[in-house]
Amino acid sequence: MAENKYDVVVAGSGVGGICTAALLSRYGYKVLMAEKRDRLGGRYSTIEMEGFKVPTGGMALPSRGGVIAEIFKECGADYNIREMGAPSLWIDGGWHQLPEKGQLKALLTILDAIGANKAKIVGELAKGTATEKILGAFKKGKTGTVDPSNKMSIRDWLKQFTDDEKVFQVFHSVTSSFTAVNDFEYPVSSFFAYLSSAQGGLHHVGIAPNGNVELCNSLADTMTARGSDVWTNSPVEKILIDNGKVKGAVVSREGKPVEVECGLLVSDLGPRATVEIAGRDKFDADYLKQVDALMTAPIVHTLVASDKPLADITGMAMIAGAKRIVTGIAMTNTCPELAPPGQHLMVCWSTPGSSLHHLDKEEEARLTLEDVKTIFPDFDQHGRILWMEVRDIDHEYVAYRSWMGYDMPPETAIPNLFHVGDAVKPFGWEGTVACAQGAKLIVNELRKRFKPAA
Q1: Which 3-state string (H, E, C) describes 363-377?
Q2: What is the DSSP string of 77-132?
């Protein structure tokens, strides 16, 4: 195949993009993966900061099998994950250890721990989950909340069965941890879908002891070993479309535009960015309306450094009753390699006051800092904020480019242009795992439709 001519161009190297590119390379396609930054991974990458290895976004991955481990095995990449301990709940100033798996069981344990009146909730939650297993689409069940036209929020659903504020706090923490959306904004039907999906529930999870980017580099190495190319510092600036089909792309390579030819383009940039570099005039009004209607999930990403561990936890932390923080990971309690000697690192994620409107960034930062000081009493004496970033609804690194259950399909009206990533998540899946599952599904479909050049 001629230089700068590929079977597939993959734009972006987030988990969806890099899994797609590595799998296609594994199956004999010549792939160019073009990433605009100097590092791979997108929101699952690593930045070096004052000797700390800091995550750019997500962190936890399944540590005992699952789709990501399967992709690494299929491609021949090293899946270096260190398993964390059981998750913990912080509420009313105290920590409670939770079961390692089973979403419903975890919820019951939480409610038991705080002594809430949960009896009626338990039955209704079980009904909702069982009903949703019918799947195929949202269907109305005994709870009356699984029809897609019924957008009752999780909070309003709970109010049918309890007025216990502690119950609301716990469900807010659990649901916001997974959806990155407030419980009073997010539909309970979509949450039931998650609970009953192949992914739903709290799994055994781990983190990369040498930083997320090591995993991304491991996948990329399998690509180059098979004759594909990985370009960093190389944004895809334009998707070239002729007679209704992608014919190639313009990639900025070492500061110069390079035109590459391809038979297929897969974008991990998100539908909005993809439409802009392809040209809005290439899409019909209905498609553009879908793209413009995508609801993103803002987030506050906070890294707390300290000279001693701020919490005696080794797993995911769920935070109930705080003003903004809903979850976190004491990274160095599992992987001390991520910090300089004698230092410790905690990552916290906050769900802002609204997931629908632009944020007051100063207010969100202030409330998050107040939470840090409340949750970790030793912070003032032993800790400091290493990095805090308030990611508004239009930030490139939002928590999600689409709310769970509101995703677009990976296909576009252009027959050889496809999306991967967290705006086209498979139904019932969330987070990094959803991006990998989406990559697996789209690769299976592309192999049926497009054959690699001889």
Answers
A1: HHHHHHHHHHHHHCC
A2: -----EE----EEEETTEEEE--SS-HHHHHHHHHHHHT---HHHHHHHHHHHHHH
pLDDT in tens, 262-293: 999 999 999 999 999 999 999 999 999 999 99
Q: How many C-beta neighbours within 10 Å does residue 379 have? A: 18
Tallying the residues shown for the chain, one arrives at: 454
| 144 contacts 316 by C-beta, under 8 angstroms | no
Residue 134 has pLDDT above 90, yes or no: no
SS3 190: helix
The answer to whether 81 and 207 have CB atoms below 8 angstroms apart is: yes
**From CA 232, how far away is CA 218, in angstroms rounded?**
15
Q: 3-state class of 253 per DSSP?
A: strand
Q: Which two tokens stand for residue 393?
A: 């609804």
Element (DSSP H or E) covering residue 330: strand 325-330
Q: Which of 436, 444, 439, 308 lies closest to 376, judged by CA?
A: 308
* Cβ-Cβ contacts under 8 Å for 167 (sequence gap 6 or more): 111, 116, 117, 118, 121, 158
Kindly report, residue by residue over 39-68, the tens digit of the pLDDT. Answer: 999 999 999 999 999 999 999 999 988 999
Average pLDDT on 313-326 reads 95
Place of tokens 């800092």: 369
The pLDDT value recorded for residue 100 is 57
User: Nearest 5°: phi and psi at 230?
Assistant: -125, 115
Instruction: With cut-offs at 50, 70 and 90, classify the pLDDT of residue 199.
Output: low
Q: What is the DSSP letter of 147?
A: S
In this structure, CATH architecture of domain 5-82+209-294+404-449: 3-Layer(bba) Sandwich (3.50)
CB within 8 A of 122, min separation 6: which ones? Answer: 108
Q: Which is it for strands 325-330 and 344-350: parallel, antiparallel or unpaired? A: antiparallel
Question: Which pTM value belongs to this model?
Answer: 0.91
